[in-house]
Amino acid sequence: MEKYFEVLCMCPLFRDMAHWELTKALRCLNARVSSFEKGEAVMNEGEPAKYVGIVLTGSFQIVRADFFGNRSMIANLVPGELFGESFACAGVKAVPVSVLASEAAEVMLIDCLKICHSCSNACQFHQQMIYNLLQIVAAKNLMFHQKIEVTSKRTTHEKLMAYLMLQAKQFGSLEFEIPYDRQELADYLEVERSGLSAEIGKLRRQGVIEADRSRFKIYKPLKYKGIAAIDF
């Protein structure tokens, strides 16, 4: 486990824990590491929610598919990030999303019950982990509402501009790089890729934005059909 300590220290679940506490916690939690190839699922829609996962290497995508198989991107996960905690804590019988490897990757899986309930040794780090877990769930809830704010817009134009302006505000700059390629961004916005590409091209010709793959620059941070202007 030692080789993963650097990335585990970045994980919010272990925030404010000393190195020796992290070492003890991993033993107490019976944490296990699993490897996945690109496209493999660490968590499948419909499976019971039991585990909390921590990305160690590579990256994963959280996706949701509707009845007709249309895919919607929920989030992109990179090393140090946590997933599955909300479903596991809620004790849902079936996970409503899938978590797929975007590339060869490794993940640490921990039984959520071992996090939420103190062991027989009454380890002091449990209290800190439970506090951290509450903060994580609250933060993920805010992110979920932010996605709803974007995808509830009526048109591809409004969805794209709402997302880009939220990213600009998050980065504190009108120039930034997003964690998605074109298809992934289309999945996140819940629009067709062709329509998204057409809208990006239109905005570039109008001088509203500059786009180069995942890097964007906004030239006119004005108000777009109910989307508030950026205020850094």
Number of helices: 8
Residue fraction in strands: 15-25%
Shape category: elongated
Average pLDDT, all residues:
87
Number of strands: 11
Radius of gyration: 20 Å
pLDDT under 50 segments (min length 5)?
A: 228-232
Q: How far apart are the termini?
A: 41 Å
Portion in helices: 25-40%
How many strands, what sense, and barrel or not for the largest sheet? 4 strands, antiparallel
Biggest sheet strand line-up: 1-8-3-6
**Category by helix and strand content:** alpha+beta
Order of helices and strands: HHEEEEEEHEEHHHEHHEE
Explain how this protein is built.
The chain has 232 residues and is of the alpha+beta class. 38% of the residues lie in helices and 22% in strands. The protein has 8 helices and 11 strands. A 4-stranded antiparallel beta sheet has the order 1-8-3-6. A 4-stranded antiparallel beta sheet has the order 2-7-4-5. Strands 9-11-10 form a 3-stranded antiparallel beta sheet. Helix 5 runs antiparallel to helix 6. It is elongated.
What distinguishing features does this structure have?
8 helices; alpha+beta; disordered C terminus
Topology, pairings included?
Layout: H1 5-8, H2 19-28, E1 32-36, E2 41-43, E3 51-57, E4 60-65, E5 71-77, E6 82-83, H3 85-90, E7 98-101, E8 105-111, H4 112-116, H5 125-151, H6 156-171, E9 175-177, H7 182-189, H8 193-205, E10 209-212, E11 215-218
